[in-house]
Amino acid sequence: MHPSDLAAAQRGRVLVTWSKQATADPLEIVEATGARFRTRRYGWLWDLESQVYNVNAGHGHPHIRQRMHAQIESIAAANPNAVLPIREQLGRMVCERAGFAKAFFATGGSEAVENAIKMARLYTGKTRVITRKNSYHGATLAVLEIAGDRRKQAFEHAMKPGLHIDDPYPSQRVGDTSDWVASLERVLDQAGPDSVAAILLEGFTGTNGMQLPPPDFWPRVRELATAHNILLIDDEIFSGFGRTGRWFAHEHWGVRPDLMTIGKGLTSGYAPLSGVLVSQDVADYFAEQTLWCGLTHYAHPVSCAAAVGSMEVIAREGLVGRAERVGQVLQTQLKTLADTDLGIVDVRGLGLMIRVELDRNATPLHQLMRERGVFLPVRDNAFFVCPPLCLPEEAVAEIVAALADGLAQL
Ligand SMILES: Cc1ncc(COP(=O)(O)O)c(C=O)c1O
């Protein structure tokens, strides 16, 4: 089939996400390796979006493929509770790595967050969930309702109002604390802590800002949660598995959440899998109480194999340290670019989770960068630099030079 025929044929039968169908312009990918993929129309592109922020271990890794093949050859389909060596291995690996008692495996990130909320409601006997005003935790209706992101707008009329912490940026001090903490204290006061089951926060916020929280924020959240029998849920679906230069972003702030949601980089996107990791107290609670959670495809064996393979690659190839190192090189070069009058007003982030803000709308930059060998995620006045963690350091200069050229045309 001629390449343009393939795009037209797919468009004729398959709906795309988050788009008006007539104007969406998805690319045909013909091969992918490491931190790049090759498209029919533009050739090789550096993947600064990691295919929706999840190919942490890199494209086409033979070890992950081999793990998946081996699982397909043994047991390719099994009910979510069946005992399998690959499930035991993944549960052990992920709990030991992250320091939790037990893991509950689901399919996608939004479901993991829904399950974490259900667990918090069951455990505390309370219902409400506090989130940040500019937060995204997934697109199923229950998760849209509690989060603050504008992606809920089309459905908001049918939803209860959320409970949100302000996250002014840059943050200011208010008396003894930061304005983030003051906002949380206010929300808790208004809602009444006896109604709040959970505080749900991204380990490090993704496309909604990548704001570095003030230093008192996470420790104070932990204190307040403990004091009021509220569970602290850390959503590491975007920021986990090395992306910020730590295995999990909360390690930057030194706090221990009660529940942690994982997805995306868990399998590096080779198969769908997500999870909720739970503390010993929560695990003990569900030893005696029913866990009212579960769907048909949960803990899929081939996805478990992809996760084991991906975690092995991230550990063996030192990709967490590499994300920190290459991320610093990228930030330094992007900050140098910011001094050259190309409209950059801020560069910030952690590891390979970087946001660059412009003094104008960044949308046209996406197309300009496709033509310059870079697949660049953009949103409003910002673009993001979130490549696979195996991005070679030598690629940084090439990418930054392409960005300088694209920005000059913007
Ligand atoms: C922080 C965070 N939580 C949850 C989700 C939802 O994950 P999924 O798209 O796999 O349902 C996302 C997706 O972008 C995310 O960034």
Whole-number mean pLDDT: 97
Oligomer: single chain
What is the total domain count? 2
What gross morphology would you assign? Answer: globular
Distinct ligand kinds: pyridoxal-5'-phosphate
Note the total helix count: 13
Sum this structure up briefly.
With 410 residues, the chain is of the alpha/beta class. It folds into two domains: 62-316, Aspartate Aminotransferase, domain 2 (3-Layer(aba) Sandwich), CATH 3.40.640.10; 318-379, no CATH class.
Protein model, in words:
- The chain is 38% helix and 18% strand.
- The protein is built from 13 helices and 17 strands.
- β2 and β3 form a beta hairpin.
- The mean pLDDT is 97.
- α3 packs antiparallel against α10 (301-316), α4 crosses α10 (301-316) and α7 (179-191) runs parallel beside α8.
- The strands form four sheets. It has a seven-stranded mixed beta sheet with strand order 4-12-11-10-9-5-6, with helices on both faces. A four-stranded mixed beta sheet has the order 1-2-3-15.
- The protein has two domains: 62-316, 3-Layer(aba) Sandwich (Aspartate Aminotransferase, domain 2), CATH 3.40.640; 318-379, no CATH class.
- The chain has 410 residues and is α/β, with parallel strands linked by helices.
- The site of pyridoxal-5'-phosphate (PLP) has 13 residues, from α5.
Architecture blueprint of SSEs:
Elements: H1 3-13, E1 29-33, E2 36-39, E3 43-47, H2 50-53, H3 62-74, H4 85-98, E4 102-106, H5 109-124, E5 128-132, H6 141-146, E6 163-165, E7 173-174, E8 177-178, H7 179-191, E9 196-202, H8 217-227, E10 231-235, E11 259-262, E12 274-278, H9 280-288, H10 301-316, H11 319-338, E13 344-350, E14 353-358, H12 363-370, E15 374-375, E16 378-379, E17 382-385, H13 395-409
Parallel strand pairs: 3-15, 5-6, 5-9, 9-10, 10-11
Antiparallel strand pairs: 1-2, 2-3, 4-12, 7-8, 11-12, 13-14, 14-17, 16-17
Helix pairs in contact: 3-10, 4-10, 7-8, 11-13
The protein binds pyridoxal-5'-phosphate.
Residues 108-110, 113, 136-138, 202, 206, 235, 237-238, 263 line the site of pyridoxal-5'-phosphate (PLP).
